[in-house]
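**Protein fold record**
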Amino acid sequence: MGLVAMQKRVVFVICWLLVALAATVSAQGDGPITTRSAPPDPAQVRLVEVASGFERPLYVTHAGDGSDRLFVVEQAGRIWILQDGERLQTPFLDLSNIVTDVGQGYSEQGLLGLAFHPDYADNGRFFVNYTDRSGNTAIAEYRVSADNPDRADPGSGQILLTAEQPYPNHNGGQLAFGPDGNLYIGLGDGGSGGDPQGNAQNTWTLLGKILRIDVSGAAVPYLTPLDNPFGGSGLGASEVWAYGLRNPWRFSFDRATGDLYIADVGQDVMEEVNFQPADAPGGQNYGWNRREGIYSYAGGADSPRYVTPVATYEHNQGCSITGGYVYRGEALPDLQGVYFYGDWCSGNVWSLWRNEAGEWQSSIFWPNTGHAISSFGEDEAGELYLVDYAGGIYRFEAAE
């Protein structure tokens, strides 16, 4: 290496360390980074395709079993395994014969969500969220095959919960286990436009909600945790955890803090990200359809009982938000504590963080990526992925 090249490399390393320091100086003791003094630097990160050729992929996740496999959900009903960068020849599970036939045009139905039990390595249990042949939501449990870790047992399916869907859109679809070990389920308001049935503010219906159920107890098919906000109160369905949502298209828990981030698709004007701290009780009302983002909707007056979103953008920057994750991997230290989300229509990717005063900050990280962003995902190590509805899976990696 020549002297000039060596000097350039030294300068690059120093700059990189300064950027990383900006992200880490706000760490509280030895705990996870929750604030930062500077925004993340997009020039330090690139998207690298790790797989392609999927048919309308909607999600990517891991099993938490130490195998380092990725599981890719296709809308038509198949779940594929990526191992060492290669897709296995046979699907992990094929539910195409029971999920809604999504055809070739645009659809918000199909196989929408997947979550592996926290003890999957021992019990082989996992859960799916799909719309059935009648267009209604079904939450079902399956188990891995007894003799092949790369194949699920298709005969093991057990329906845990169903919800009638009055329209074919706004089905939500996310499943995720929280730090409390309970299963959280996202459901949209039932569809059409403007929530004509008033589902989101009706605490007795499961639509327009995030549900919280206990699937680890002995009760069949599930228990509702005693600290759910409406359990036994006579004020709402016992499964409801949060309400006032239009179409929560991807929510996630910060794996380091347990905080909950909810991306909610807007109506005509605004997309939003909502935030619930890990120590907050259930029963949060996110405002729809009395409010869209920070604006009044359907004649609704603002109210302090509506949780204000921590980030919004209007439809000159996109038309349908896709929620992501807080980065907690090791490969990209500058991204620690940053939440990433995107837009299906514009391909924009945003970063969201809090400054040292605790104020939320958001900015476009990558404009117009050229991807129809249907989801984000994490692997076991906390590295971050982007899913392109056109068929590709991309990983966030350090720029060369």
User: Anything to note?
Assistant: Confidence is low (pLDDT under 50) at residues 1-28.
